[in-house]
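User: quick one - fold this with zinc ion bound?
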Amino acid sequence: MIPSEDIDKIRSNSNIVDIISSYINLEPKGKNFFGICPFHDDHNPSMSVSPEKQIYTCFVCGASGNVFTFVQNYENISFPDAVSAVAKKIGYSLNYKTDINKPFKELYQLVDIATKYYINNLNSAYGKDAKNYLLKRNLSEEIIKEFNIGVSLNNNLTKLLSEKGYSEKQIIEASIANKGDNLYDIFQRRITFPINNERGETVAFSARVYNEDNTNKYINSRENPIFKKGNILFNYDKAKNEVNKSKTVIVVEGQFDAIRLYSIGIKNVVATMGTAFTKEHISLLKKLNAKIILMMDNDEAGEKTAISSGEELIKNNLVVEIIKLSGEKDPDDYIIKNGADKFKELLKSPISFFEYKLQYLKSNKDLNKSKDLANYINSVISELNKSDDEILKEVTINKISKEYNIDKEVLTKKLIVPDKKIIPKKINKKIIPRLNKYQKISEAILYMMMKDKKYIKIYDRDLGYIPDKEYGQIANDILAYYKLNKDINIADFISFEMKSIYYETVLRIINKYEEIEPNYEEFDDYIEATKKWIKEEQINKLKNEIDNEPDINRKQELNDLLIKLKKESE
Ligand SMILES: [Zn+2]
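Assistant: Sure. Structure tokens for the protein plus zinc ion:
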């Protein structure tokens, strides 16, 4: 548990605009800032961030909250982890270990111990060959350190972990050992590259041979509860911030390529680790809110990967460009042979995915043969028919018409006229309940109380009760919060209320009354109206009691009381 004083201090020392800006692009507009909402499939900036209230709201999907809920939902982490992440961002020193209640804690610990162990090996006399190998491949001491590169020697780690008290089952599950007659280290005499998840926690290793001819150049940790290959983009944790600055992310196939680019200062790079794009990869890339540059290996497999990945990414509304390597087989090779400057030059001229696709369709065809040419043009048309970019269609048709001397009209006829039907977006729009007069009044009262402590004082003195379970509880929470903190503001109250079952209602009220400036007169009217409501509720309750009262005398007493109450409320 993080003490609530810390939570409030971190909240009030952080600026929600700065923090959210580190995840998504925000543009100022009037009093607020706007950006593409990361919590639904947003294409127009629907998320508003209020520096005054220190909250954010998406007016399409209803996502709303303070700086902590944003980080929590964006990074998909627990509330305490979100608080600690914000603390880190603003340089607030917080004595909190994020892994206290983490599931699979032991697996993370084991991988952590292994990482340190391998690093240690590399710096020992036994690691000299491996170190030389790395230096010879132009990886500096600095990069080796930054990527926590190490080396596994012989069969020692399993022994060490057993001695530390970890069970066989745990060591196997962490993918550090295999079981034969005995347990033995999976990685032996290999250079180890830690693989981190999106939060920068090491979850697995990729390990490479360095001193023998082995058909298995690379082996990876087995998948386990903390490591799913398809969930991870190598270097994503480090690239995140860089991408935020450059608004571009380069995707390569191998982690060595990623490390190489990083080492020449191109840090906005991630690697797929040799798998096709998964849903998780795509959602990680979407979160970056950046243009994607695919730079696959320079071979047939790489081309195919570029095409299939590009299509998948475009389907998900991402902007994709391609850089084709020529000569060398992968970015690592290219940089080693041609140098960093030449590579950076190459980076300046990516082509659009569509352009790439046209080039790809041409390959292996002899366009002097009419059959090949017809084939090619038909596939171009079928590509165009997948797009709804009218300008692209026009430009492409003009180009091939000129290039191959084909009547433009013939080509245009083959284009499908786009269907004007708009496919509705799937959105989990929050259902806004219909409220009666008194409910509306209660919400206005609660809003004013959250906004300014002077209304809490009036409420406490003049009313103290709302005859509705939900609103009554929220009012009590506001009172409790005020008594604890001697003040109130919306952003901090949200943190306080987070665990309440009425949290959603609180957020709805905050957003609904956003534009209202509280004033005393209005508040007094609301208090009076609510008093009336209380009376009405009492009368209803009494009527009910009278109907169910079997005793004649008692019934008479209650009737007298009812008459008295009615008179009072007139
Ligand atoms: Zn949204």
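One thing worth noting: The CA atoms of residues 133 and 210 lie 7 Å apart.
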